Structure formats: structure tokens, C-alpha cells
Amino acid sequence: MTVTSTAPVREAESAALSRSDAVIAGLPTLATGPTVEVRDPATDTVIAAIADATVAQALDAVATADEAGSQWARTPARTRADVLRRWYELLMERREDVAVLITREMGKPLVEARAEVAYGADFVRWYSEEAVRPRGDARELPLGGAQMIARRAPVGLSVLITPWNFPLAMATRKIAPALAAGCSVVVKPAALTPLTTIFAVELARQAGVPDGLINVVTTNSASQFSEAVLRDPRVRKVSFTGSTSVGRTLLRLAAENILRSSMELGGNAPLIVFDDADLDRAVTGAFHAKMRNGGQSCIAANRIFVQDGIADAFVEGLTEKMANVVVANGLADGVGMGPLIDERAVASMSRLVADAVDRGAALHTGGTQPEGPGYFYAPTVLGDVPPDAEVANTEIFGPVAAVQRFGTENEVIRRANDTELGLAGYVFTESLDRALNVADRLETGLVGINQGVPSNAAAPFGGIKQSGLGREGSAEGLEEYQSIRFYNIARRATH
Ligand code: NAD
């Protein structure tokens, strides 16, 4: 197996690191003190050591963003749009470098990393287009005597906290609408994957984003960061993507300053296959919904419910696909799945599979840890998973497909909705009526109908129940960074 050249890695990494002083306001580039060590999960080696920001430095970043923000809020929308458009173009011009960096620090195969660059850059393009279409309107008072104008103003300094699983897209999905709306930002990427964000923000600088507008704070001390920064009165908004438990903590903190809050939290997606589904479409859709990002996606198919009549054929088809996935370093050619993010993730897969098998689930493929180094786990299919198995009740976040059988539509809806989380759901059926009826009854923010990859920049992405608050992408994503204000104008009758 050939490993592709590492030259672009070094170039992108050194670009990310040598320019980081320009994007992290007030922070040293290569710290002389403590560092955040970034590991390549495929080789278990340290690939970079970058500054571990102190609380004082994080507050410097807030001060810098505060200063840059007032000017940016007054910058014409067309100028903001042009800068974002140029950033999009630079991300696409440097697509290969960004992709290699994503693979190095996060592990996904290059082909998926390239797809993430296109997906992540698309948010920047989308919001370059939305920036010049701010909505506002005039309203009539029912009793007359006055008119109102409703306007949208930038919400203000926004703190953006992102996870490791999509190091580019989770950052651009927040930064681009914030900038389009006229806000400045402090971004805290996950300590596991900060390099892609640093490099992307360097490209934003090259695109003409003014200094101080986007500040990246890398730190191993996430809770100290949020305790200090979210209490700062200059901050007006927090947008977080990550686990529900951390989201809950941040909402408590946000309550103190009554911060506008957007929360993209954990998922527990049901994927439902009815007897009348097109088998190939269902198997392929389930495979993609499960295996994108090695299963480390918030909208990953978590509980796969298959109707009795099609269950055997479905499990056979899915097993064949999963067993044929090439698992190796994501930089090599032809790889279908790279490593998981860390050792803990591998241990968690082993534990979940052992528990399910103990409780009577059938192991159709996988359940093994390929030779290291690196944090690899074999794509796994479990059939006849009992409802009390842990794998049926937790966010798996890895390459384990857990299949359960069901009999009737009502039964599967009840089981699918039996969770506090409500991010994504999937339905496979050839009946349009059934697809829409089931989609209506699923308690989730989004539903993939006969397809496993529903996300895109034009979609109002987000969860209900404990999967979150607010939406990212689409016009709604811009509104997350805007406050509505109204002027009430008294009118004197002239006739
Ligand atoms: P995580 O909650 O552990 O961490 C997410 C981010 O929050 C990281 O940057 C981390 O450093 C930071 N963080 C942790 N504790 C913090 C604190 N007290 N204060 C401030 N920041 C803190 O999640 P993760 O393991 O990085 O990501 C996986 C989770 O993210 C899964 O639950 C997944 O479903 C969810 N996710 C959701 C979406 C979505 O759009 N809904 C997208 C991707 C991931």
C-alpha cells in the first residue's frame, strides 16, 4: 500500500504553525511554556506542539475581538461578502493541503478529508452570498398611528467552541455566518485537532479578513477557558458543537450573562428500513450513514431498525460492505476507514461490542482491533441487538452497526423516539406516504429519506430535544448571529 507524499503535510503544517502568531491574538506561536500536543491517530506520534493558552491570553483574545468587532459591524455587507468569497476560493485552491492536515490530525481517509474541505468551504461560500441579503421589514400597527421597522443587527462578540470530528467544517459553519452578520469571534478548537482551524484562519487572513477579527485560542484547559471567557461582559454569544453534557455545562455558564446560545449536541439517530425499501439503496444508505468519518459523526446511524421481512437480506448486504472496508492510515491510497480519534474510542468500541454479544447479539463481522500502532478498530456489524444492550442506548461514535428488528410502523416509531436526543433520523421505504408519515412522527431535527448523507450548507441543520438549540447552515444559520431590533415611528395623520 502506497502512502501519499508527506510534502503537502509539512507545508500545510508549517504554514499553520508559522502563521499562528498572526491569528491568535496576543498568544505566542510556538510556546516556550506548556504546549498542546497534537497526535496523528494513525501512528500515535506527536506531529505538532502548539501554544497552550493561559486564561489571561484567552481574555486578550476577547479584548482583540472586541476592538476589531465594532469596525467590522460597520463594514458594508458587500465588503464582508467579498472577503468571505475570497476565503472560500483560497480554501478550495489549497484543498489538498487542508485535506492532508485534516487526515494527519483527525485520521479520516484523504478522500473523506477532501469531501470535508468542499463541505466546510461551502459554508463560507454560502454565507458570502447570504451576507448581502440581510432581511428587514416594515410592519403596520393594527390600530394605526405608527409604523415599525424591524432590523437585524450583529449580535456581537461570539465565542465558538468546536469538536474534533470535522475540524474544518465545524469551524467554518460558525465562523462564516458570524463574519457575514458582522460579528468578531474567538474560536476554541478541540485540543485534539487545532491545526486545521489555525491553517484555515491563516487562509482567511490572506483573503483579507482584518487582523483581530478571528482569534483562535488553543488550550488543554477547556473548562478554565469557558469559565473566564463566557463570564466576560464583552462576550454576547456562545456557539458550541460537541457532547450534550458539555453543552449543558456551557448553557449554565451562559445563563450568568444571558448569552445568546447555539448548541449542536449529541445524537442517537434511528435508521429505519421497511420491508418495501429498495434493498441496495437501504444497504448503501445505511453504510454511508454509519461509516462516514468512521462512525464518528453526530448524525451517524446509531440504532438501525430493520423490519422482519427484509432483515436477513439487509444484514447480509451490510455485512459484506463493512467486511470489505480497507482500514489503514488515511494517507494511503484506497483506504475506506482510518483510525479512531484516540485510545479511549477504541476501548469504548470493544466494551460496547463485548456487552452486546454477552447479551445475545450476533457478531456478523468485525469486533477486532487491527495491529497498531494507531487507534484502529474493525468495521463491525451486530445483528439481533437486544434493546437493553448498551450499544442500543448510547451514542456509539465509531464503526459499529447495531441492527435491531421490528414488526410494525407504530412499534418502530415508539422505539425510535424513546431517547432524550433528537438530531437525525433516516427512513428507507419506496412508499412516499409512509416516508413522509414516519418523517413527521420522528422526533428529530432532520430526516434523511432514502439517503444517508443529508448535511449541506443550504440545510437548516440542528437538533430538537437534548440535541440542541438553534440551526447552522442556510438563512437560519445567519440569524443565529443577529439580533432583531425594532423602531416604532409615530405617524401623524395628514388627511
Ligand atoms: P466534547 O463535548 O467533549 O468537546 C467538544 C469541544 O468542547 C472541544 O473543543 C472541547 O475541548 C470543548 N470542551 C469540553 N469541555 C468544555 C468546557 N467545560 N468548556 C468549554 N469547552 C469545553 O465533544 P467531542 O468529543 O469533541 O465531540 C463529540 C460530540 O460532539 C458527540 O457527542 C457528537 O454527537 C457531538 N457533535 C455534534 C454535532 C452537531 O452538529 N450536533 C456535530 C459534531 C459533533
TrEMBL record:
Species: Mycolicibacterium austroafricanum (Mycobacterium austroafricanum)
GO MF entry, a single one: oxidoreductase activity
Active-site annotation: E264
Classification via PROSITE patterns: ALDEHYDE_DEHYDR_GLU (PS00687)
Name this polypeptide is given: NAD-dependent succinate-semialdehyde dehydrogenase
Taxonomic path: Bacteria, Bacillati, Actinomycetota, Actinomycetes, Mycobacteriales
EC number: 1.2.1.-
Keywords: Oxidoreductase
Top class in the EC scheme: oxidoreductase
Family the UniProt entry places it in: Belongs to the aldehyde dehydrogenase family.
Domain Aldehyde dehydrogenase residue range list: 34-485
Annotated Pfam families: Aldedh
CDD domains named in the record: ALDH_F5_SSADH_GabD
